[in-house]
Amino acid sequence: MKKVISSIVIFLIVLLTGVAISKSDSIKYNNTMNRLGMSEQAIVLHTKSKKNLVTAVQELSKKKKVSAYQLIFFEKSNSDLGYIYGHNKINKLPITSGRYFSQDDFISQIPFAVQGKSSQLESYKPQGQTYIQMGDRYISVIGNIGFDGADILNGQTLISLSPNQPKSKLHLNQVTTVLDGNALSNKESLSKIKSVLHARSSHKYVPQTDDFTNAETANNGEMYLVGIVLLFVLIVIVDFYILVPLKYDLSRSHLTGDLKNNYQNGLMIRYLIYTLVPFIAGYAAVNWKIAIISHNTFNMFILVSVLITILIGMSQIIFTKKRSE
């Protein structure tokens, strides 16, 4: 009965590991969504230029041999409203309805918008199509974005920019400019972008505040990873616990030769049944019921745990035989 209970414990440990990895993934994904899909390398470009946003995009579009990048210009007065331009790069965001921006939207003469599901910006839907009003213009909302727990994303409204659009009422000194993409790691491309935007300095993009300078430490799910390590240690303890009665049986046997070998092999098989079967059942249950993004992490946990379990059994049963001889 104790061995059966131990097997159930191993099964539950595998399930808890799946839950921990899933929670860690969820936190990391929420953080990414609150960065509007932008990488941790994204930067805020400091500029005091009074250049019009569309003029800046027009000049950028004429630059040759520039690596892929995405720019979002957040209004300083309201960071929940941003203007987006992508050059061969679009950070996709989860869509609840409609569609997200495509590369064609960044060359269109007409601006389009995507709106977070909890955006405070009022929208209108006169004849089936949703619009938002920006000054004296109405902009078509082509999609809604949202993800549970990602409050910054859910409250955001993004409007596409294009070199073919009429001039905007906003200028570079009225917005916070965030740059992401391969251009960050290409000195020549980054220099061209900074030159157009008259940016003389930059800092890391942290989306907690309107000025994007609050470097609060985000929870990236590390505590769950610590929990996974503790669960691994618990598996090792359970393995040794299962071996206690098996080693006791082994010590009481007075068999020799082939009979002894067969008996010890039988004990090893019993040990593997009590340990590996719950691993297999737990692995199947996690893949069936628990949403995991970091499959490699979970698979590695299972693989290492199984290998350690087998080695522990061999060291206590098979190798014990050789030492005693």
Could you outline the blueprint of secondary structure elements for this entry?
Blueprint: H1 2-34, E1 43-46, H2 53-61, E2 69-75, E3 78-87, E4 95-98, E5 112-116, E6 123-124, E7 131-134, E8 137-145, H3 151-154, E9 157-160, E10 175-180, H4 187-197, E11 201-204, H5 222-252, H6 257-289, H7 295-324
Parallel strand pairs: 3-9, 5-8
Antiparallel strand pairs: 1-10, 1-11, 2-3, 2-10, 4-8, 5-9, 6-7, 7-8
Helix pairs in contact: 1-5, 1-6, 1-7, 5-6, 5-7, 6-7
Structural class label: alpha+beta
Question: What is the C-alpha radius of gyration, as a whole number of Å?
Answer: 29 Å
Largest sheet entry: 11 strands, mixed
Order of SSEs: HEHEEEEEEEHEEHEHHH
- Report the helical percentage: 40-55%
From the N-terminal CA to the C-terminal CA, the straight-line distance is: 32 Å
Residue runs with pLDDT of under 50 for 5 or more positions: 321-325
DSSP summary, beta strand count:
11
Q: What value does the average pLDDT take?
A: 86
Strand content: 15-25%
Q: How many helices? A: 7
Counting structural domains, the number is 2
Q: What is the overall silhouette?
A: elongated
Protein name: MacB-like periplasmic core domain-containing protein
Organism: Companilactobacillus kimchii DSM 13961 = JCM 10707
Keywords: Membrane, Transmembrane, Transmembrane helix
Transmembrane segments: 223-246, 267-286, 298-319
